[in-house]
Every structure is written in structure tokens, then in C-alpha cells.
Amino acid sequence: MKNRFTTSFLKLSLLAVVLFTASCNNDHDTPAAVVLETKTVSNLAAPQTGGQGQPDGGAFTKFSFSENAIVTNDNWDIAFRGTTIIVNGGTLIGLADEPVRTGTGAVSIVSGTLGVVTTIPAVGTFAQDAAKTYAFPTSGDNAWYDYNSTTHIISAKAGKVFVVKTHNGKYAKFEILSYYKDAPATPGANSVARNFTFKFVYQGSSSATF
Hints:
Blueprint: H1 2-27, E1 38-45, E2 49-51, E3 54-57, E4 61-64, E5 69-71, E6 78-81, E7 84-87, E8 106-111, E9 145-147, E10 154-156, E11 160-165, E12 171-180, E13 193-203
Antiparallel strand pairs: 1-13, 2-3, 4-5, 4-6, 6-7, 8-11, 9-10, 11-12, 12-13
């Protein structure tokens, strides 16, 4: 009887040690790295009124990276109207019907591709909207598009990645693929404009990398 009791006690003791060791190992496991997902937004409509010599107008289409959705509240990060893109940070540019900036958003423009840009740019490279000043330039090398005055086609510039500080201080990076509905490889006279297709990656943590 004594030997049987001793054997059972030893077995229980050994089991307890094994469970305790496993528990300790689990307590010190390194958390799994968060895998950031590349998402595609297709045919985001950006209508506007006016044009052709008339003042541009109409509501901006406001987009949230964290929600991956068009929003109507103040939790927007960027907004689109025609070829104009604005950020939820800074002050009013002076456009008709533009939304008030309620966030701390800003934009840094990086040459490269979405996969190559893996580090949040330096703070000093970020710009906000201001009076008559666009964080997303409307002309020059850093404009998001080229315009062909012969065909009147608007083409998204390759190799331009826009790193956005969101309205609440997080980060996203995105690249614009097309300005036309269904993103035709070669837009033509019958292509439907003011429909953005873009890819983005949202970084919801405080990490300095994507």
C-alpha cells in the first residue's frame, strides 16, 4: 500500500512540474507579429460640380483608413472631389464646400512602391492643408497625376506613395492606381472619370514601420 501511494504521489508531483514549466514558458512567449494587410478600394466616386471655367463645388467624399470605408462624420482621413485630395489636418484651403479639419492629419510623399516603403518618414516631411496650400499638391513632380492636354486623360503617376498621418495620429500608406471606373489599363474617351482605385496599408499601432 505504501509503495502504491508513493508511486502515485511521484506521478502527481511530476505532472505538476510539467504543467508549471509549460505555464512559465507560455508566460514568456513572444507575441505573434501583427501582419499588415494591403487592401484595395475600387471605384470610390469623387463627383464635383462646375469645371470648364466654372468654380468647382460639391461635397467631398470622405474616407477612413481604419474603417476602410466612406464616412460622413469627422473621423475621416482623406477626402476626394474630382482630382482634388485633401487631408483631415491643418486649416481650410479656401475651396467651396470643403469640410472643416477636425483632426491632426498630414501627408508625406515618398518615391517608391507600396511594398518598398516600410518606414514612417521623418516628421518634418509631413505637410497639412492650409490657406491656398494643398498637402496633396495639384501640380508639379509631387502631384498624384499627369494630365494629357491632347487626350484629356488623367493618369496616376507611378512610383508615388502617400504616407498619411490619420486624423487621430495613426498611419497609412497608399498609392493611386486609376482615376477611372473599373481601372481600365488604357483609359479612353468613353472611360468614366472621378472614380478612384487605390491600394493602402493601415498601421493602427504606434510602430514606426509598416
